[in-house]
Amino acid sequence: MVDPEILTEKIVTQNKTFLVDLKKNQAGFYLKVSEWSNSKKSSIFLPAEGIDRMIEILYKFKSQISDNDITKDPV
Questions:
Q1: Helices (H) and strands (E) in the chain, counts
Q2: What is an example of a GO molecular function annotated in this UniProt entry (predicted)?
Q3: If we measure between CA atoms, which residue out of 50, 43, 53 comes closest to residue 17?
């Protein structure tokens, strides 16, 4: 049985489409991030416990890109 989507957001950038789905199964909530590019699909699954850390990492990367300072060594 496929877990139903609770929320779904779509991101289209360049020649790629991403779907970010919030889902729930017997183990709890999780994110499913899927990418479509050139008719290929791949997905990753992130348990709810990892969402805060993923957000921290994405903000850090966004900040480095915004500052145009991607030459710093990551910590």
A1: 1, 4
A2: purine-rich negative regulatory element binding
A3: 43
